[in-house]
Design brief:
With 108 residues, the chain is mainly α. It is built from 4 helices and no strands. The chain has a domain of 70 residues. The relative contact order is 0.17. Keywords: Lipoprotein.
Length: 108
């Protein structure tokens, strides 16, 4: 086996650590994003954020009422409407989007 490819080689260990950090970063709570961050997302990213929030709170992501209900709650809470991307939210700019709803509800 090539000495470079051995699992104990420093470069291999560093690459493995970097990959692990990248994977862990993808597991962060989507609800910590602020309304300003949500407002600056393109509409396609907002949809992904909504899905990630539902998943994080163990709610059905394929439920139309869950998806639309959360989108409406975020729009109202953050003052973000339609497909427009803005630099700042219309309201609650620095507040986490997780505060937009009561997560104790099982359905919307």
């Amino acid at each position: 086996m090539n000495a470079f490819c051995r699992p104990e080689h420093p470069v291999v260990m560093v690459l493995a650590a970097v990959m692990a950090v990248g994977i862990m970063a993808g597991c962060s709570n989507p609800g910590t994003a602020t309304c300003d961050e949500y407002a600056s997302q393109p509409y396609s990213e907002r949809k992904k954020t909504v899905k990630a929030l539902l998943e994080a709170h163990n709610l059905e992501t394929i439920s139309v009422s869950n998806t639309l209900g959360l989108q409406q709650a975020l729009s109202k809470y953050c003052g973000v409407y339609g497909f427009n991307t803005t630099d700042k939210a219309g309201s609650n700019g620095s507040s986490p989007i997780d505060k937009a709803v009561n997560w104790a509800s099982e359905k919307w």
